[in-house]
Amino acid sequence: MSYVSAQGLSVAYDNHVIVKEMNVEIPEGKITSIIGPNGCGKSTLLKAISRIKKPHNGIAYLQGEDIHKMKTKDVAKKLAILSQAPELPGGLTVEQLVSYGRFPHQNGLQRLSSKDKEAIVAALKNTNLMEFRDRPVDALSGGQRQRAWIAMALAQETELLFLDEPTTYLDMAHQMEVLELLERLNREEGRTIVMVIHDINHAARFSDHLIALKDGKLLFNGDPYHIICPPVLKEIFHIDAYIGKDPRTGKPVCITYNLLPEDVSIKKDAGLLQEV
What we know:
Residues 4-240 form the ABC transporter domain. It is a peripheral membrane protein. Keywords: ATP-binding, Cell membrane, Ion transport, Iron, Iron transport, Membrane, Nucleotide-binding, Transport. The chain is α/β, with parallel strands linked by helices and 276 residues long. The chain has 2 domains: 2-78 and 158-275, P-loop containing nucleotide triphosphate hydrolases (Rossmann fold, 3-Layer(aba) Sandwich), CATH 3.40.50; 87-156, no CATH class. 30% of the residues lie in helices and 31% in strands. The protein has 9 helices and 14 strands. Strands 6-7-8-3-9-10 form a 6-stranded mixed sheet, sandwiched between helices. The chain has a 4-stranded antiparallel sheet with strand order 2-1-4-5, with helices on one face. It has a two-stranded antiparallel sheet with strand order 11-12.
């Protein structure tokens, strides 16, 4: 079943079309990663199907409704999104930041209800931030700060969580910290998670479903075993990849790769990719 989908979706900035007539389906209860080269439309697609960017053509659906015709609060009760490098006012504590996630459930400027406070505490516990609740967000490490933003999204109590490059600028340990948290939220709570990610090994390890874009078009989608393979990576990234099996997860892993010469082109023939 598709929680989020799009039909004939095209998105443009000024007169430049970034996303071109895409048909997309996001499976419910799974972790979906969007991969592809820089500038291929990954973040733009995420913005369009999450109502941040209005499409030029086509429709994005949230549980069968045109998301761009839904009320903002109704969307915010179903979908939480964490953008790239989000900004916040200086001096906010972790708990204050997380409390922002309760805005969709409030009327006007009312004080936090007991239910709001329970949701905030649950989000802090879920992200292992209780001991940092009174600490300024600016004083946190990169991984802790990213967990604080995720906690804010969790406080919205949505079934769907979108993240645009959640591991950017983080070191290896903090990347794993964030990705393992997202995996736990999916496995233990059944949250549907969609993320844009650059590292194809992380995408393979932590995702159930992959969407591979190139030049604004959706070329491949499916499970990691069918997407993280030499023919697909050759088509998407123009690389000659050697793929092995992760001994810990059994998932495919790119062990090494070379950039292909410029004169190597690829075509799809009866569902298979061949060099020409």
